């Protein structure tokens, strides 16, 4: 039985990932248990844990043209999506290195690989998360620890529903049309389901996945090669 820590474990993807690791010891802290933007909170949470699998899943998003993106909005997304993954990885990695065993997976986004209009803060923060995994992968290469990223397009979650609601409120589209507009972003032609993301995370976290390191597993139906 492995100890699996999933940040942002109360969200749609977090719950699906937790279910995928049924049979393991799963810890899915919410912000009240582990504020990923606080070095002190993260250090205290991880202090007594021997983490076998860390899933950096905590994330937030908002959209606006760059000219209307506030500094506070920029900083919040960088802090949660980028710094949060950094702090949790930093806390879990020494124990993994000492045991020469561990899996680190960040739930990023296709926004971590390409740019899109009105997502400057989100895109920058997800690029940071993907870059972090690549850098960590280089540090742990040749050991029993791996670091990888999962990059889905729009996932059917409350976060995506908020994007759909924004489209409905600012255009003449209905809910079905707004969802279809998001689905058209990728060749997949539909939203990704949370359990599909969970499958990808569990695959990268498998004990047998030791040769997979520093990779980005894209879930978009083939749009990003």
From TrEMBL:
Q: Name one GO molecular function term.
A: oxidoreductase activity
- Keyword set, alphabetical order: Oxidoreductase
Which BP terms in the Gene Ontology apply to this protein? Answer: monocarboxylic acid metabolic process
Cited CDD domains: SDR_c
InterPro entries documented for this protein? KR_dom, NAD(P)-bd_dom_sf, Sc_DH/Rdtase_CS, SDR, SDR_fam
**Start and end residues of each Ketoreductase domain:** 2-144
- In this record, what's one Pfam family? adh_short_C2
Coiled-coil regions listed in the entry: none
Record PANTHER family: 3-OXOACYL-(ACYL-CARRIER-PROTEIN) REDUCTASE, 3-OXOACYL-[ACYL-CARRIER-PROTEIN] REDUCTASE FABG
Q: Which family does it belong to?
A: Belongs to the short-chain dehydrogenases/reductases (SDR) family.
- Please identify the protein, giving its name as recorded: Short-subunit dehydrogenase
The species this protein was found in: Labedaea rhizosphaerae
- Supply the source organism's classification: Bacteria, Bacillati, Actinomycetota, Actinomycetes, Pseudonocardiales
């Amino acid at each position: 039985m492995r100890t699996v820590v999933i940040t942002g474990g109360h969200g749609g993807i977090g719950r699906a990932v937790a279910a995928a690791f049924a049979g393991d010891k799963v810890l899915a802290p919410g912000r009240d248990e582990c504020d990923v933007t606080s070095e002190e909170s993260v250090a205290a949470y991880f202090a007594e844990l021997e983490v076998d699998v860390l899933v950096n899943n905590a994330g937030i998003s908002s959209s606006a043209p760059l000219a209307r993106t506030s500094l506070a909005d920029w900083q919040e997304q960088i802090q949660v999506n980028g710094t949060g993954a950094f702090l949790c990885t930093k806390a879990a990695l020494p124990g993994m290195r000492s045991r020469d065993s561990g899996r680190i997976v960040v739930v990023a986004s296709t926004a971590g690989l390409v740019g899109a209009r009105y997502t400057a803060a989100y895109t920058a923060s997800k690029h940071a998360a993907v870059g972090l995994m690549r850098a960590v992968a280089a540090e742990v290469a040749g050991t029993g620890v791996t670091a990888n990223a999962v990059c889905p397009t729009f996932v059917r979650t409350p976060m995506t529903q908020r994007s759909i609601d924004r489209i409905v409120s600012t255009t003449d589209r209905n809910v079905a049309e707004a969802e279809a507009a998001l689905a058209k972003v990728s060749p997949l032609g539909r939203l990704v389901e949370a359990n599909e993301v969970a499958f990808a995370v569990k695959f990268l976290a498998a004990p047998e996945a030791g040769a997979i390191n520093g990779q980005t597993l894209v879930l978009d139906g083939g749009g990003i090669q």
